[in-house]
Each structure stands twice: as C-alpha cells, then as structure tokens.
Amino acid sequence: MAPVPISDIKVGHIDDVQELKKTKSPQIPERFIRDSTERPKLDKTDPPSCSNIPVIDFSKLCNGNKVDFCNEIFKIKISCEEWGFFQVINHEIDLELLDKIEEVANEFFMMPLEEKKKYPMNPGSVQGYGQAFVFSENQKLDWCNMFALGLEPHYLRNPKLWPTKPSDFSETVEVYSREVRKLCKNLLRYIAVSLECCNEDVFEEMFGVAVQAVRMNYYPACPRPDLALGLSPHSDGSALTVLQQGKGSSVGLQILKDNTWIPVQPLANALIINIGDTIEVLTNGRYKSVEHRAVTHREKDRLSIVTFYAPSYEIELGPMQELIDDTNPCKYRRYNHGEYSKHYVTNKLQGKRTLEFAKID
C-alpha cells in the first residue's frame, strides 16, 4: 500500500503526529518546522548524555544510617542549586507498576485515532487527548501527542475524559498516582531538610490538598528530527515533576545547563525529578527551576509519563521568610497559586517566561 501524501490527510489529522508518521513521508508539514534558532543540533558535536546529574538513593533517605542520610541530603541540595534535576533510584514504587503504567499508556496511544478523539483536549484546556499550549493558527507545533488527566483534588477530574479502553487504564492510573503522590510528599520533606528549614513538613502544611495531574507524552519517530522539537523549551509551573520514560525509548529529554542543551539518559528503573517554578519562588531563587525540552529521533518512538505535583489553587504563595535576608533580598511577590496556574496554562511554552508573573521588578 502506497504512503498517503501529507496533503491528503483529512483536516483534523494534520496535527496528529502518529497519523503523520503513517504517511512515511520524508518531510514534515511546515507547521512543525522550527525557526533556525530553535532547531536542535543533532550532529556529532552534540554533548554526551549527561552523567553528572545527581542520583539520589531514596532507600538511604528512608532507611540508611546518619552518614548515608546526610550524604543524600547534600546531593539533593547540590542538584536543586546547580541542576534543578536529579534521578531517584530505589524509590519504593513497585517496578511491576511502572511496567503496567507504560503498558496501558502504550495501548491507549496505539488505539485508532477515532477512539482517542473521544477524549479531546479542547482549546485552552490541558486535559484530554491532543496538544496543549496551542493558541494560534500559525503557532509552531510540537512533534508529540499528549493525553492528560487531572487527579487531585477530585473536583479537578473530568469523568468524560477517563478512557474505557484499555479496560484497566483507570485502575492502573489510580494506583500509580497514589504511589507517586507518596514519593512527592517525601521528596518535599527531604528538600525542606536540605534547606535547613526548622519544620521538615513546611511544604505539606503550606500546600493544603496538593494538586496532582498526569500527562502521557508520545513522540513518534520523526523523519526530520533536525527541524522539529518534541516539546518546546519550558520550565514547569509545579512544585515537583516526576518523569518516567518508557523502556526502549529514545533519549529525548534535554536540560539547559550553562547555555548548552544537555541530553539526559534515564537510569534503568529510576525516576527523573525536577523542581518547578513554585519551588523557585518559595526558596526565593535559592533552588531554581530549569528550562528543558524534548527532541525527536529519526527511527525510535518515545513514551514518557509525567506527574505534576503543586499546591492547592486556593493557597497564597511567596518566598519563605527564613530564606530572605540582606544577601538574598525578596525576588518574588506573593500571589494566589490558582491565578498563577491559570496564567501558566493559558500561555504557550516559552522558556521561563511564565515565571515573570511572580517576579518583583
């Protein structure tokens, strides 16, 4: 069967990259072609996959001796100050559960387009199937299909967007999300310890009923990875982000370090953690959110499962007083987190520009 020309794809399919892959065209539509300044450099001079991002052994935080505990806390401090990212091993989430969430995510993305379109991501929304952060006809698109769901508090859930296929999708997401929520709560406690806060539960007490969402990203192989991006450069608006990369996926995550895009190679069975804009504000810039992006691969698909963990929308936030002094004056104003979240999801991804919402001039 001959490949379908891109020009013959029905309207409504043109932005679905899995459908575009089926055309087997060596080219990609103009709307996915980035300006020359934004295109990834994929030649042999690319830096090697980053092996310097700290690796935190969660078991030493929970069950290790005092020396092990202090060493891991120090690594958290360095990673949050210098990288904004770290990987967590021995995180106590069942590895079979990690395999299961990948399985149901892959099954969902492999369903026919008409089935997936029953759960549409409407314009201005960040829940459902489609592409988020798209606000204009001429905006460049990411080479990625997304499926996102609000999880906690329960009022954020839209039952119409929870798929009935695969049959065990909802149950798996529920169990997985409960385990990731526990991990986030513990990591925030250890981050507080790394900041030498008097109260290690300061974030949990401040956040109220924390907001949690999950987004599954599917990046098909792209015939022109030198022209497209899987996900535009951005920092996350959350407090913590937990990323699980599908086994066998291409390396896609890159972080901006010293003005250089560095690829991150996930460790087997590890979870990648990054701090979001909320932690940068609360720590008055001591711990900084980091700009990151996803690139595509010419031959390999990539799956990632991303959990966002953030304060309640009703909470007012600002820098913690104990982290403000003469050497580090207040950099951010106090604001309602719900207002910031609305600002974040109603603007396209543009590096760390959304954080300007909170900055003091």
UniProtKB/TrEMBL annotation:
Record-linked InterPro entries: DIOX_N, IPNS-like_FE2OG_OXY, IPNS-like_sf, Oxoglu/Fe-dep_dioxygenase_dom, Plant_2OG-oxidoreductases
Basic and acidic residues bias spans: 31-46
Source taxon at top rank: Eukaryota
Oxidoreductase among keywords: yes
Ranges in a coiled coil: none
Annotated PROSITE patterns: FE2OG_OXY
Keywords noted in UniProt: Iron, Metal-binding, Oxidoreductase
Region (Disordered) location: 28-47
Family: Belongs to the iron/ascorbate-dependent oxidoreductase family.
Name this polypeptide is given: Fe2OG dioxygenase domain-containing protein
Native source organism of the sequence: Dorcoceras hygrometricum
